Amino acid sequence: MFFEGMVGGIMYLVKKGGVKIYKKKGLKEIFIAGLGPGDFVGEMSLIDDEPRSAAAKVTEDSILMVITKKNFENILQVSPMSANKILIAFLRILSKRLRDTNKKIDTP
């Protein structure tokens, strides 16, 4: 799907299957999260223009829905109510992922 450091601009919604989020440290892959149906990945690239902060790859046969930055910006302008719901979902998942990451750092 994508590698850490790549240009973003696309978010993926997992409709079927699974996705692994990880970071590379040398030759080693550090597992960050496993995602399944209903989860999304790459949302940060719709919010900012920074490179991907981690890598993602499918772990099984999967169906992913693609939302481009242009599609997202169109939703923001055309349907503010829908955009608000999407942004709240982004905030919730980003908060959860940050908390999960903090727990991993705190664990000896």
Highest CATH level, the class:
Mainly Beta
N/C terminus separation:
31 Å
Helix fraction by DSSP (H/I, runs of at least 4): 25-40%
Low-confidence stretches: none
Within the CATH hierarchy, at the fold level, what is the topology?
A: Jelly Rolls
Overall structural domain count: 1
Order of helices and strands: EEEEHEEHH
Separate helix tally: 3
Look at the structure and give the mean pLDDT: 92
Shape: globular
Number of strands: 6
Derived from helix and strand composition plus strand pairing, the structural class reads: alpha+beta
Q: What's the arrangement of strands in the largest beta sheet?
A: 4-1-6
What's the CATH superfamily, by name? Answer: Jelly Rolls
* Radius of gyration from the alpha-carbon trace, in angstroms: 14 Å
| Assembly state (oligomeric) | single chain
The largest sheet is: 3 strands, antiparallel
Strand content: 25-35%
Can you tell me the CATH architecture? Answer: Sandwich
